[in-house]
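Session log. Operator J.P. requested a structure for one protein chain; no other inputs attached. Running the standard single-chain path with token output.
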Amino acid sequence: MADRCEYERVAQEALPMLYKIAMGILRCDADARDAVQQALLKAWEKKESAGPGKLRGYLTRILINECRNIQRFRMRTFPVDTPPAAVRMPPDYRELYDALFALPENLRLPLLLKYAQDLSEKEAAQALGIPVTTFKNRLHRARKALRETLDREVMFE
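Structure written below.
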């Protein structure tokens, strides 16, 4: 993708989605903003690597890698018992968010990409760097785990 205007258009459209993905992974506003900024910068520097029409998935893949870099940095610098700043969410959705963020990352990311970001299965699988069948399997397992957690919470109310 050599056209600057095309890059700017795609990046601007993807910005809210990228931020939501970063918040879903990092759960900290400052870290999410840093990850998005770094992803946009790296995508700009290597924009020729993304084929025509593939910048959105390319940006998402870079963003996920940047989020993982930030998580690795956190593990080296923060004590284990000090969590990062919590996600701001509407009180009505607290149980859903708690159940979602309790899932391991390999199950949480497919849910976020598919339902929160409205990516196709193919786009989401490409962003995660996994085959589509693996993505579908993780998505199924994630929905099942989320359903079981929420059903268990309803039973104990």
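Operator note: Helices lie at 4-26, 29-45, 55-77, 94-102, 105-116, 121-128, 132-155.
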